[in-house]
Write a structure and sequence with these properties.
The protein has 398 residues and is of the alpha+beta class. Helix content is 34%, strand content 21%. Helix 6 runs antiparallel to helix 7. The termini are far apart.
């Protein structure tokens, strides 16, 4: 009868479902090698990302002189030399392992992080997509030590050698040499169209950090391998305007305007940003000191913040956009702030041109989430609308 037909159809559907599930692929755990290479590809998109990570390590190490050398756009050869505090010999065995760091102990430390690095992924990621060599010497060390790394682990430097750090001649600081970037990722390697384009991206990264650290006495140099003259050289200055003049020329420097504002930060509210003081010091601190008590009361209701920087005036424009933004000491992109500032200038500058902008924004450490992007290119922070409004209004006033 009809009941029998329904039962048969039910059994048929169950049988088909069973056959389908029998053909479903099984879920397997990826090997650690595959996991590490996937993660490395997210952190190191191109040589400029590797430069940024290593440069930040140098700044975290207290370096005041940093030199970057590149060949083939950084794909063939990339080297960074600094005069920072160096790496202890005892730490060289694990320095390229993932999640090994001297900068973080607990997850809650992210709320008050005072360094660029915190994940312990930079050198590990580079070692999974390139051949990496570290030569380092601590300031109180008897000599330098040198070690080569591949896939996060020390490897012999040559046939018959032993892995691990070997004593050698050197000077205090660290030299990291990276060769054959993406040698094991042929598809990624083929995607790079021009070594010169990649080198220009490296120059852009170095120049932006040179501007930001321009009042901290840190010298930056960037050159092509084999070249005697650098393409970027900024002096160890305490005057950011002088550094901008050195990097971008006198024509821009004479058209720069100081900009600062924000309701200010309560003493001790800001995490000390890397390569810079907390907002209670320096230029951003001036904005804080200038804030009125009324503004301080308003800040208590929302997210307190302070910003400072340099912007070109209406007499100066550029075909290429230069918008340098550091939030709590980190080089990031924030499209809402960038678009708001450019909207202010759109009424004054020729169509298709841009202002030159450097801004530093300081917020309380617990108001900024620095762990939202693999390359740390973006951060999330509280009170974004208020910050955007305050910055654009102040830029319009100057």
């Amino acid at each position: 009868g009809s009941d029998g037909g329904a039962t048969q159809r039910g059994f048929l559907q169950l049988a088909m479902a069973a056959a389908s599930s029998a053909g479903a692929p099984s879920i397997r755990r990826l090997s650690q090698e595959v996991v590490n290479r996937i993660a490395a590809g997210e952190v190191v998109h191109r040589p400029a990302n590797a430069v940024k990570e290593m440069l930040e390590n140098s700044l975290d190490a207290g370096a005041t002189n940093i030199t970057i050398t590149a060949k083939g756009g950084g794909l063939k050869f990339l080297q960074i030399q600094d005069n920072g505090h160096g790496i202890r010999k005892e730490d060289m065995g694990i320095v390229c392992e993932r999640f090994t760091t001297s900068k973080l102990r607990e997850f809650g430390d992210l709320n008050s992080i005072q360094t660029y690095g915190f994940r312990g992924e930079a050198l590990a990621s580079i070692s999974h997509v390139a051949r990496l060599t570290i030569t380092t010497m601590t300031r109180d060390g008897p000599c330098a030590f040198k070690a080569s790394y591949l896939d996060g682990a020390p490897v012999p430097a040559g046939p018959g050698g032993s892995p691990g750090p070997q004593p050698c001649a050197g000077v205090p600081g660290t030299q990291i040499t990276v060769e054959d970037v993406f040698y094991n990722m042929p598809t990624r390697l083929r995607a790079f169209r021009s070594p010169s384009e990649e080198y220009n991206r490296i120059i852009e990264v170095v120049t932006r950090y040179a501007v930001h650290c321009g009042d901290r006495g840190v010298a930056f140099t960037c050159r092509k391998h084999g070249s005697s003259s650098p393409d970027v050289h900024s002096p160890a200055s305490k005057d950011r305007r002088a550094v901008v003049r050195h990097l971008y020329g006198a024509a821009l420097a004479k058209e720069l305007l100081d900009v600062s504002g924000g309701p200010g930060l309560k003493p001790g509210a800001a995490a000390t940003g890397p390569c810079g003081s907390s907002a209670g010091e320096g230029a951003a601190g001036s904005a804080t000191a200038a804030a009125t008590s009324d503004a301080g009361d308003a800040a208590a209701e929302g997210t307190p913040f302070a910003f400072s920087g340099l912007v070109s005036n209406a007499n100066y424009s550029m075909k290429r956009r230069v918008f340098i933004l550091f939030i709590n000491g980190r080089l990031v992109d924030c499209p809402p702030i960038r678009k708001a500032v450019e909207a202010v200038f759109s009424d004054y500058l020729p169509k298709g041109t841009h202002p030159w902008v450097y801004l530093r924004l300081d917020l309380p450490g617990d108001a900024v989430d620095v762990n939202v992007h693999p390359t740390k290119r973006e951060v999330h922070f509280l009170g974004e609308d208020e910050v955007v409004e305050a910055v654009s209004s102040r830029v319009a006033d100057v």
